[in-house]
Amino acid sequence: MALLQLTIIPMGTATPSVADYIADVQQALKQENIKYQLTDMATVLEGEITQLLAIAAKLHELPFQKGVKRVVTQIVIDDRRDKKISIGDKVNSVKSLLKA
Amino acid sequence: MALLQLTIIPMGTATPSVADYIADVQQALKQENIKYQLTDMATVLEGEITQLLAIAAKLHELPFQKGVKRVVTQIVIDDRRDKKISIGDKVNSVKSLLKA
Amino acid sequence: MALLQLTIIPMGTATPSVADYIADVQQALKQENIKYQLTDMATVLEGEITQLLAIAAKLHELPFQKGVKRVVTQIVIDDRRDKKISIGDKVNSVKSLLKA
Amino acid sequence: MALLQLTIIPMGTATPSVADYIADVQQALKQENIKYQLTDMATVLEGEITQLLAIAAKLHELPFQKGVKRVVTQIVIDDRRDKKISIGDKVNSVKSLLKA
């Protein structure tokens, strides 16, 4: 199980605001059978690595469908094979260390 | 006002788990006079760009103080000069588009 | 045509040096039918986005085959649909502006 | 000694092409007393971490001076304290493993 942090940046848009493109991404994610979380800088997805990259590829296409000519997409994968990692686990694990 | 997304990766640690290093980072952030938020893949800080980079430089030093010999730190800055951006704003702006 | 910048970080390795894992990645890339370039911080691949992500997924598996338990992989995709982009183009385009 | 990989993305530009902004960055880097290298996806700088972050902060300002309202800047720092790392070292070290 892995986490994938995704940021999709449409370039050459008329205005600096890109919230509507991010809303498209969130709308599309609702159709996928995975857990995900929107943060202020990225979306974090949880799943198997092949599935996550397939979804990332689909989401990366969305701004092009709205006429954008260039998209920069940043992905960070955190993949552990010694234990299952789910959304919320790492935050909880750090918080319990802070309380100790 | 800018957001800075920070991920600090200590390398060559004996185990794959690095939660205690992230806890150090969170502990140090409490001393700083800024808003921040821990996500599962990063910490998001809010402030002026010079202040944020100075804090990032301090936090990057923490694993070395524990004996780590190599640290990879990823930073993404999102800096707007046409409007103030705060933690929570972008998530709220996307959510209101989804409801519309 | 897109460029994909790839950095594979094995975590929990005994030593901070990871050159042998990067050598595995370069060795595996020789088998693929694409153009690529090794830099000091990443490998840049050129191709169609689906093909590039499939190769990135394969390369991400390599450190696990050597016993590593956690791998952090960073990907940045730069994808233009208004013109073909190849390795070397962007550097050349900036250099010709500097000479002008 | 550390390497810093820098990518500056101006947002809300009229066209998808940003080569002139990158040329500004390269022009400004000539004034700095450090080694650097332009790749197709980023610029890699070599130096002490504090110096590198100060330069990154300066370069991040450049697109704003041309009227851009939002800049996304990605930084990856690779910092070793067990040995000196210079531009070219990691590529050479991987290449010598490939020949072995």
Q: What's this model, at a glance?
A:
4 copies of one chain form a homotetramer. With 100 residues, chain A is α+β, with helices and mostly antiparallel strands.
The CATH class name of chain A reads Alpha Beta
Shape of chain A: elongated
In total, the number of domains of chain A comes to 1
CATH fold call of chain A = Alpha-Beta Plaits
Estimated helix fraction of chain A: 40-55%
**What is the alpha-carbon Rg of chain A in Å?**
15 Å
Q: What class would the helix/strand composition of chain A place it in?
A: alpha+beta
Structure commentary:
The structure is a homotetramer of 100-residue chains. Chain A is an alpha+beta fold and 100 residues long. Chain A has one domain (2-99): Alpha-Beta Plaits, CATH 3.30.70.930. The first copy, chain A, has 3 helices and 4 strands. Chain A has a 4-stranded antiparallel sheet, covered by helices on one side. In chain A, β2 and β3 form a beta hairpin. In chain A, α1 crosses α2. Chains in contact: A-B, A-C, A-D, B-C, B-D, C-D. Chains A and C meet through α2 and β4 of A and α2 and β4 of C.
